[in-house]
Predict the structure.
Amino acid sequence: MPAVYPVGLPSENVDDDAVKVVRRLRRYGYEAYLVGGGVRDLLIGRRPKDFDVATSARPSEVRRLFRNCRVIGRRFRLAHILFGGGKIIEVATFRRDPAQKFHATRCRTYPEGSRTDLPRPQRLAPVHSTSDEDDLLIRNDNVFGLPHEDAIRRDFTINGLFYDFHRSEVIDFVGGMQDLRQKTIRTIGDPDVRFREDPVRILRAIKFSARLDFGIAPDVYDAMVDFRGELGRAARPRLLEELYRLMRGGAAHRSIYLAWNIGVLAELLPEVASFLDDDAPGSDLTWKRLMAIDARHRRDALPSDAVLLTALLLGPLEEAIEGARDPSAAYEDFMEEVAFRLALPRRSKDRIRLLVTSQRRLRQGKVGALTRREFFADAATLHAIDTEAKGETPPDWALHPTVVEEKKRPRRRRRRRR
């Protein structure tokens, strides 16, 4: 049996449209719960960025109930309920991993006199029954199941909680409430197996630890170190997206430090990892640029993904280009492996080139014609981040590049000769 916790969530942080979706599903006889990161964030007093719903209704049944619904995905069929302002409530049918069974274990106990407010539920954990122990990578994840089966196929205990609006209760199959109160990142089941199933979970563990300021359970940390090489087997576009999420979440400095300390950064960006390992001149600026990015996140002024990635690569990239007889060829040599390893689109690679090559002129204050270039706002923002990292005050045109673009003079028309 799951542990059930009576919890009244603060109404100001709960999205009304998510509540409407859950109530309509229940009204038509389906089970429906708020799940995942939205429940986690509400329980720790944060306002979720998005809300996910898990239900017993199949995607086609959800579509029949909501006119504003579209069904997406092939490997993983999802229903998106669309609302005004670009809001999306994601609705997923309860799923199970066809390769897994599960067993119940007692949740860990606590020292005498501590955590007396918590019940002693049984924790469900997945157990693999596969003949091929060397290859656990998940390739099929579209088998429908029951709520407890859906909970144990999730990655971390703090993301395996269900919230029942009807009863105002948190339903916990995996011991997530205890880990949430202890501020601990712990996998559902054996971390060795879970990271081999999906190596991208290693990056997600780093993201949650850094963003929520949670510790990582020792066995989970050891498994992250042991299986970081499995990241090479993950889908490369997913690696790039998770790297962007590490940079966007307001904890870029702590995220990249954890990735570097664990050895994950050496798998994704060995060029940056070795630059930091060697304590190369300017390596301290890399950390300060990340701190400047976090400060911008707090001001709700997060730059574009191109600026975020360039800020991370800037130190080793400028080191590779500096003094090269052919800077363009040096750039291509440096970025070739980076682009392959992360499936970096060509347009992103070209954008990074423009941002990097413009920095020398901007540092000399030669703004001039650059204000008329489409990439000027990003280049100026990168210059502002770099200047802040050096402990200096950025010029006004770097802090407000859009104003400069608006003030640029129109081109004078040439008078035609008679």
Remarks:
- The domain at 3-196 is CATH 3.30.460.10 (Beta Polymerase; domain 2).
